[in-house]
Amino acid sequence: MTQAKARLISLVFLLLTGVALWQAQYFKIDASADTLLTKGNKLYLITQQASQTYNPEEFILIAYKPESSAIFSEPVLTFIDSLAAKIQKIERVKSVRSVVNVPIFAGMSSFSADIDPNALSWQQQRFSEEKMKYALTHHPLYEDLLFNKAQTALSMQVVFESNKELDKLNGELVAIETKMLERELTDEEQERADELRSQKEKIEEKLSVKRKQEIDQIREILKNASADGEFFLGGNNLLAYQMINIIKNDLVVFGAAILLIVSVLLLVLFRRLKWLVLPLACCFVSVVFTLGLLGGLGIKVTVISANVVALQIILTLAVVIHIIVQYQEEVAKLKGSSESLDQTKIVTRTIKEKLNPCFYAGLTTAIGFGSLIFSGIQPVITFGWMMVIALAVTLLVSLVLFPSLLIGFCRADTKHVTVKWLDVLMHGLASAVDKFPRGIVITSIVVAATGVGGCFLLTAENSFLNYFKSSTDVSRELTFIDKEFGGSTPFDILLTIPQSQRDPQLVVTAEAIQTLEAVQAKMAEKEAIGSITSIADFTRMASVVNKKPLVEYELSALYYALDKQLKDDLFGAYFAENKNEMRISMRVIDSTPGLNREQLVEQVHADMAAAGVDKANYKLSSLFILYQDIIARLMNSQIMTLAIVYLAMAVVLVFIFKSIKVALIALVPNVITTAAIMGFLGFVGIPLDLMTMTIAAVAMGISVDDTIHYVHRFQEEVANKSDNPVRSSHLSVGYALLYTTSIIVIGFVSLVFSDFVPSILFGLLTSLAMLLALITDISILPVLLKTYCSKAKPAKTQPA
Questions:
Q1: In which band, very low, low, confident or very high, does the pLDDT at 721 lie, cut at 50, 70 and 90?
Q2: Hey, what CATH class is 3-30+240-294+304-456+633-788 in?
Q3: Alpha carbon distances (Å) from 473 to 60, 468, 469
Q4: Tell me: the pLDDT tens digits for 569-599?
Q5: How far apart are CA 467 and CA 33, in angstroms?
Q6: How is the chain split into domains, by residue range?
């Protein structure tokens, strides 16, 4: 490659970077709960169906805990009323429900169809504090929603207007998708479903921006309120809002910190400005290219894939550093010969030497991340594809742009900088391999066995409350709402009324209500289940008002006589007459100590059987059951993906090194690293969840990279009849391994200071994986290579 061609290639990359930078404006972070669901499976479709039937409202809960006044005192209620009036002015707000404006039915002498609910509110009647406390204590509908059991905090339920166009699209899409419960969709149906999803996504993007603005407006109103107490916000929209803010903040703050640390280390290790500028330029181009591609393809980054940028920086730096170290070796060789230091010749020899190991290291790393595609969990599958794209970009930039920049804009490096203490360290490590091979093997076996033992302690759980440091405001708010207002994760039971409990003359029979009450009573016994509501609460409330039980004929007459709006308010969310179905709406308290979600689901099934409900007559739905379905598949998915990745990697390593023996030896460091990382999770009690389940692929992808470089160099040293191939490998490629590990570990360990727990775990576990990969690659790997492959022929790989 001539200097002119190199500059032309660099110019092309510069133009493509500009295009990618423009395209990156379409790159989006989506932290909504919906992005973490596996769509298209049975439970998801059932939940979507239920959502269409019962139309649960979109709302944000604002809790208020007064410092010095009782929650039902007039000053507090007046303050809530004035605050609600301000929030009501926000454009999309439909209503702001609180104990101030909801009907206090205990104020009635009897329950009848001609009631005016508005006339029964505190706003209209100005009930005394004692009357409010008497009427609302143990209220089946309002307790855990509008005030807590301890009566120390009130809440405002800010209900938003639904988007009519979005509702229409959802209705048509659900009608098509639910056909998958019985059969495959036709081509026409699939095409229409894709069209509807596309239209729906455009509306949801605009709605997401609107929701962020609404939360900002609400926070501004609360900030300016002269409150004698604390505010706490909760709700799924707020969770997405907080996660996006923290992820964006981490990208800026820790991105800058990592950049600074990496820059300092590159200067310290290589002591040349070009070895700082060029690697950072390649990282920048790689990241921009990837973000541009993801934006152009419409692939959104979710909470699971939020670390894709950080991973790309790791992988790009790793390849570039290997090339730099090889370049320095080529310079050292030429300086000891009569050949001139021609930059083009040096770079060409460097790339010729490193092309195969870099390409195949990238390929095997892609296989490691690509294994996630077989996880069966949609957001994880998407992350797998994202990393495959990122790796393709990394190889292109590192193997084409980086050498082009070296040839086109840099002179030959005449001075090879060495760090004496590193030379001493690498000599010492090489000597340890020669002197203590048995100790290294035994230690490796112990570490691997311990890691495998820890894997048996792995559990699978998922709690969004645990995604934030306990010291943060968002954690404090979400935990308060979860504990004091009946939980945070929706969990529904859909009861189909059996034929034996139906009567065509009645809306619902006494037997059906009794079954409903029996199930509800069972659910109320569970510590982890907070708020529970159904039409049984309405009948119980009516019985209190009428001072006698509401018989089934009275309930039917009342149901048909009620105004449509009031009927929808009282019954619509809990009873579907056309389907003979009743809904029990519950919320799970995520902060419950020792909560075992799988066990909770099993207990619910057992309680349903104990209540005499046949399994064919009920369904479990909503976010809790969808998340639990994903978590339940995590363990099987983890085993399957690891099996796939090891098998695929073994095949590729055999292809690379043309030896089954060498391929199996090359797998050993990766097996130890992966087992140790997963075992660490088990021993310290970090559960597998939607975030940590990807760490095995990350560990495998990172560790195999350095392994291939080391094995390739070792085989070269053997082929060149080196007196000590281990020492020669340590003193050449060993530096690249050490440099890469040092830069990445020190840079990414800074993430432990993040407020976002998944980022902390990513930084910690990635750093640990890098250290383990380095240790195994310069200890057990050379021991095995020296023992079994010291006379092996070099790999006859073809240029990629």
A1: confident
A2: mainly alpha
A3: 17, 9, 9
A4: 667 788 888 889 999 999 999 889 888 888 8
A5: 13
A6: 3-30+240-294+304-456+633-788, 39-239, 489-588+596-631
